[in-house]
Amino acid sequence: MPIPAVKRLGDPNVPDPSPTPPQRVHWQNTYVSITGSNGQGEEIPLTGLVSKDWPAIVMQPGATGLDTPPWELHSEDSPNLDGGMFRGARTTQREIMIPVFIYGVDRKTVLDLKRKLIASLNPRNGYCLLKFQESDGQARFLTCYYKSGMEGNESEDTAGFKWVRYGIQMTAFDPWYYAKTLQVAEWTFGTGVPFFGPAKFLPFQMSVGLPQTNILPVVNPGDIEAWPVWDIKGPVNSFALSNTAGKSFGIPAQVGGGPAVPAGRTLTIDTRPGFKTLMDEQGTNYYGLLSPDPQLWTVPAGRSTIEVDLVSGGGTAAVRMTLTPRYDSY
Fold it and tell me: 130 and 95 in one domain?
C-alpha cells in the first residue's frame, strides 16, 4: 500500500529552508590501460581513441567484474534449528571480461595491434596489470592473468579487413585493487633521524612522531584490512607489537643478555601472505627468536590504534610501518 507523506512538524509561520542541491564536479572519462609481462611490458591504452584517422585498441561498453569482488559465505547447519548460522566470509578470485575493439587505418596496423595485444596477454610471460585512473589523478591497479577470449572469430559482426572485436576474459587471483601510494608511519624511541631522511620523491604518505605512550594511532585508507611490513631499527633489546584484538608478536629479551636487534641493523617483518619473513639487511633469519604463538596481524580499514612495547638497547631505536592499501573497486 502507498506510504503517506508526512509534513515537517514545526512552526507553520516559518517557511521551510530551501535545500541546497549538490554542486556538480567536472569529471573526465576514466583512463584504462593494460600492461603485460608482470607489469614491466609496454602500457597499452584501452581508452585512447583520438579519431578514425588513428589506429587504437578501444574498450567497449559491457565490461564485467570490475567493481566489488565476489564473496564466498561459510555457514553451519544444525539439525535442531531452522536455517543456518553464518560462520565467516572470504573473497574469491575475480573473473573479468573486457570487450575491446581493435581499429587500424589499414590491414597492417590492425594486425600489428592485434599481435601486440596477444603477446602482452600471454600468461607465460607473467601477469597483466590493469590500470584505472579517474580525473582526480588517483590510479588503482588490478593484477590478473589472461584466460580466453582472443581465439578469434571471423564472422561478419566480429572481424573485418581493418578491425576486429574480442571479449577478453581474465582472472584476478588477488581480487583487490591496489594504489601506488604507500601508507607509512614511523616512530622514534629516543632522539635521532628518521629512516628516510629528507627524501620526498617516493610515492608514500608518511607520518613521523616521537611517542610519549606505547598506544599509537595508525590509519589505513583502504576499504579492507591490510598486511603491514614492519622495520625495527636497532639497538633493540626486546619488542612486542599488539593490536586492539589482543593479537601480538615480538622478540623477548634474550637469555644471554644480547640485543634482539643489534645496533646498525634493521629487522624487516613482512606479514603479507606468501612472505611471512623476519630478516635483516644481511639476510639473518629472526623467525626462531619470536615469542611463542606469534600472530602476524592485519591493520583494519580506517583509524585504529596499536601497542608498541619496545626496550631500546641504549641508543636510538625506531619502528616503521608500511601499508599497501587495498580497495574494493577502482
Answer: yes
